[in-house]
Amino acid sequence: MSFDLKDGRIVIVGASLAGLRAAETLREKGFTGSLTLVGEEPELPYDRPPLSKAVLLGRAGAEDCGLPGRRSLDAHWRLGVRATGLDPEARRLLLADGEQLPYDRLLIATGTRARPWPNPEEAALDGVLTLRTSQDAARLARLLDARPHRVLVVGAGFTGSEIASACRERGLDVTVVERGRAPLIGALGGTVGAWAIRLQRAHGVDLRCGVTVTALLGRNGRLSGAELSDGSRIDAEVAVVCLGAVRNTEWLADSGLAAGPRGVACDAGCRVFTMYGIVTDDVFVAGDVARFPHPLFEYQLIALEHWGNAIAQAEVAAHNMVSPGPRRRPHLAVPSFWSSQFGLNIKSVGVPTFSDQVILAQGSPGERRLVAVYGYRGRITAAVTVDRAKWLEHYRHLIETAAPFPPGPGAADHLAGQEPVPSDVPDPRVLSHGPTVALTGHLPDWRLTLLRPAG
Amino acid sequence: MRVVVDLNRCQGYAQCAFLAPRVFELHGEEALLYTPAVPNDQRERVLQAVAACPVQAITAGEQAGAGEL
Amino acid sequence: MSTDTLFRRITDYANRPDPYPLYAELREHGVARQEDGAFLVGTYDEITALLHDPRVSSDVRNRDDAEELLAGEDPAAPRSFIALDDPEHDRLRRLAMRRFGPPHTPGRIDALRQDITAIAEDLARGLGEKQHIDIVDDFAFPLPVAVICRLLGVPGEDVPQVHEWADAVVAGLDFSPEEEPAERRRTALQARQAMGVYLGELARTRRERPTGDLLSQLANEDGPDGRLTDGELMSTATLLLIAGHETTVNLITNGVLTLGRHPEALQRLCDDPELMPRAVEELLRFEPPVQFLPQRTPLADIEVAGVTVPKGAPLILVLASGNRDPLRFPEPDRFRPDREDNQHLGFGSGVHSCFGAPLARLETQIALTVLLRRLGSWRLLADPPEYRRSPVLRGPRHLPVERGGGVS
């Protein structure tokens, strides 16, 4: 090596979870050069999962969700300023305030933003909002504190379902409108989705599936209600638009990198590809914005909007940024995520949408405890537990070892008489909410890319 | 002090909710809710919870980046 | 020596003071089939995988030799949740948890801090200026017994009788072949039944006149899962009483023994009491009070590290060996009170992980803190000390220490 990988200038674009953990890992691995974190939001790094849970339940303030540091960083923080472009040849990052930041190695961790309501006038009505940032959460918490007569949630993915859950827990009436057949269907498929329908209704959610919101109605600049595609109308004072996420890649449009609506493509070591599919060696990517090949899923490029992936991938990217070729590591972590809603703990390992069948393997769905195992062409590819997290490790191991599907017999609390059924993963184009895993590859019988806004 | 819990690791053993019930709370039988900003009088209990977590899922520390701006 | 006698050697009383070389031998072989058809597992990853494997049963009725094993027991008698599988295990454990901890009673154990400290201070004061102290009889035994009896609502005058029963039950977990095992099992069974009858009667009086203790609450609980039947109440209360009795005493005693053997660690703890919670976790790794789980059984043929453990075979998970696995813990045979990433198996793992863990942790943290402060300088008088018989709930029967002369 002609230069010292532990020295030089590293710039991280994105100062949220992935950016922060990457910066910490760089220092842990002995990087002593200059380190700069650029963040569009003015806040120091904070944790987003509580924003749709503890914050909406009033258990934590939106401004109190700051992330603890694992160590001191000795970094330059450029917060409240957006990256607007990249000149990979001159190795310069362009910022919205006109400044240009030179770098030797760059990490892209710009994540995603909430997909906005497509009609800007309706989106500007008082009471209409999305939920992604701590400022969004503070606003929504204030609106819920005012005890609106009804909250409308557009899209029943995880965020929408968690918001609906918080509303019900606070005794607020809530209508959830989902274009697909069921809540959570984009991430978990129709079989588990059917279970989620019963769950939401049992908690008093006014759930309307197979329906879209055709217009948000206003009076004097305030939201008053909505028109639905089935011709019905509802009154609502708050509408939370939960239509999934948009990857923050526009600023890379002229960079020559393989960046687009599906994310920034990289190799297994988090090195970004150019638009010609040639791998760079000084630009890395991690977190929600990355799309990377995963061997467990036939090397399809996948993009994961998962908390755990942001950390794991950031750590691999950082390690590789300061390590010579033979010492570099692949990012192979089995995807996993959780959601808590309606008093239940829902956890997943693997990629449930990468499946053709599912079986209810353990538990008692009537009592809202279950383990669902997903398979694809005869091997186990995912498992989802509801209040059964202690078994999940077992299924993670089965996924990692490509164990045959359906899983063998013998579980003490197995469900008698269960057979595999189609996992019923829908085409994401018919969903309101985007899937939180986007399989962005090109298997011929799969059309699981998120291409256009729905609603 | 701030805390964050890796809820992928968390399996709901609830040791934190036993030891520092004002910061960590079970929501239902298994889901964990917690207060990310730790009140000063709960620091010691939170550190006990960090030590006791059977899956070592809790990170506690000062706000990342504080003092570096 | 052949590995098919490992379990015999581990349970041999002569090896009670230091079973760790045998565990190292076990780990060398990953999974060791025993002469009687049982399988021993001692490596961390394999133990963890089995503790999270839904095909591994805790109910010995699933064993091929169940009939022989359960001879003399009433098959219809209610079993405690430690010996049951989901969904029954889950239902009973949740019912017991309703008045013990979160989500329904989150502050109960935390609220015991003052009580436990007061009991520990009382016992420590009782040591007076005594030169020679038996850590077990004078401190480590009376403390958890007082706590669990107070929590459950067992009257003080009944404690000696309860202790006698608990000892007999634990003696039934002695697998050493030199004594007549059937006889011991019979005595243990009788003791468990007598304890159950006693607690059942106590619960009935509490159902009439609740007194705010756990037993009263369990007897009167009406949650969404219903109420414990009289039989379930007896088996649950018996389990809590025995477990609360017989494990924490070993954890506290092993703590004093370990610190007596590691003066530098002792000094660090005296200088920095905030280290105590982590030191107790390290103790749970280094000298766990429950050495192995003897009663697991696969419900299907399970492959473990390349060996097929057949359905119905006895499966013994040696937690204390997993805790010393060098593939998981750097320098596993060193006691490091500030160890990082200490994901030990001291309380097991998975759905059967120790119910009373938070109480045991708190008691041990408080007990050792109070004791170290009160003892001044001290040293071990016998090393190794005399051990109790059980290889499962392993700990010293007595631990004599002498004040003065050691570290403070």
TrEMBL record, chain A:
Recorded GO MF terms: oxidoreductase activity
Q: Which organism is it from?
A: Streptomyces orinoci
Query: Mind telling me which PANTHER family this protein's record contains?
Result: APOPTOSIS-INDUCING FACTOR 1 (PTHR43557), RIESKE DOMAIN-CONTAINING PROTEIN-RELATED (PTHR43557:SF2)
Full protein name: FAD/NAD(P)-binding oxidoreductase
What is this enzyme's class at the first EC digit? oxidoreductase
User: InterPro entries from the entry?
Assistant: FAD-oxidoreductase/Apoptosis (IPR050446), FAD/NAD-bd_sf (IPR036188), FAD/NAD-binding_dom (IPR023753), FAD/NAD-linked_Rdtase_dimer_sf (IPR016156), Reductase_C (IPR028202)
Residue span, FAD/NAD(P)-binding domain: 9-314
What are its E.C. numbers?
1.-.-.-
**Keywords tagged on the record:** FAD, Flavoprotein, Oxidoreductase
Keyword check for Flavoprotein, yes or no: yes
State one Pfam family annotation.
Pyr_redox_2
Annotated Reductase C-terminal domain residues:
337-407
Cofactor requirement:
FAD
From TrEMBL, chain B:
- Annotated TM spans: none
**Name of the protein described by the UniProt record:** Ferredoxin
* Cofactor(s) this protein requires: [3Fe-4S] cluster
Record flagged with keyword Metal-binding: yes
Q: Name one Pfam family in it.
A: Fer4_15
What the entry lists under InterPro entries is as follows: Fe-S_cluster_ET (IPR051269)
Is-annotated flag, keyword Electron transport? yes
- Entry keywords, A to Z: 3Fe-4S, Electron transport, Iron, Iron-sulfur, Metal-binding, Transport
From TrEMBL, chain C:
Q: Note whether Transmembrane occurs among the keywords.
A: no
Pfam families attached to this UniProt entry: p450
In terms of CDD domains, this protein maps to: CYP164-like
Keywords, comma-separated and alphabetical? Heme, Iron, Metal-binding, Monooxygenase, Oxidoreductase
- Which ranges form a coiled coil? none
Signal peptide (UniProt feature, chain positions): none
Report the Gene3D superfamilies cross-referenced here: Cytochrome P450
- Which top-level group of life is the source organism from? Bacteria
Q: Does the keyword Transcription regulation apply?
A: no
Family, similarity comment = Belongs to the cytochrome P450 family.
> PANTHER family of this UniProt entry?
CYTOCHROME P450 YJIB-RELATED, P450, PUTATIVE (EUROFUNG)-RELATED
Any idea what this protein is called? Cytochrome P450
Species whose genome carries this gene: Streptomyces orinoci (Streptoverticillium orinoci)
